[in-house]
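WP5 quarterly update. Target: NACHT, LRR and PYD domains-containing protein 1 homolog. Source organism: Salmo salar. Length: 284 aa.
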Amino acid sequence: MKILHVEEHGVSLEEVHEVTRFHAKILHPKFSAISVILRYIFSWNVDVHSELMLYLTVKKQTLIPRLYLFPSNPGQILAVEEQESKFQGSKRIPITRPEQSLKLNSSFRLNIPCSTSIFPPRIHLIHRDTTPSFFKVVMEITGIEMELIGDDERTVWKEIVPTDEYITETHSTSAVLGAGGPAESSLTGPAEQQLRSVRTEFVKRVSGPVLNELLDGLLQHTVINQEEMESVKVIAERTEKARDIIDMVLRKGNESCSRMINLLGELDPCLCSLLQINSVGEPT
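Structure tokens (predicted):
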């Protein structure tokens, strides 16, 4: 194996003495000042293909996602897999890669609307000799709506992970939420009363994709009309959209609230379990 080496008057090939996971060692390297300068200049203006690897750990009622971000490198992928094998209950979730190349040495932040905390606030996209850095997120168990945002505040990547991708039949919602303890009692009473009592938590926890499907379902069941749906669907901010939907349904009375609870139970059973609201019989 040989390495292409940039010199003042051209390029040369150098013999490699030893190859490790992350380095190629040269026994008698030739120092070139211009190669150092060129590497410094170009490393700050290079677009690179990048990898994102998502791992999840579920602990009682808490979900802990870890999202790794690094320039594409098979060795780094192995390093992440090796590190995650040491975490009890860690499960890798398949996700997409960024469609576009990312700028090396740029920093990125992760946005997850329903998260309690995300650390660190930003990660720099750089080549590392160690295991890549990752965002550690703490959140309630629900669908995950993620977006990666660059220095210029533009979204460079989005992903949605529904609950059924990490809660399987052998790792059921009730088992996750109960964690061996006694089950919490569900809410009882009229549908309107149930929905009103969980309004704050609904706004906080419901995901954007569920809201859009919920709107379609409410329209199909004539709980809302076309004009009402269009007025809410254009709202970009998730919590504001959720607030408008639940308030709109609450104003329509108990029958409409029953429809919404049943629809929510079909679209996001995990969220209904967290909110402890009961599906009710279809109104006649």
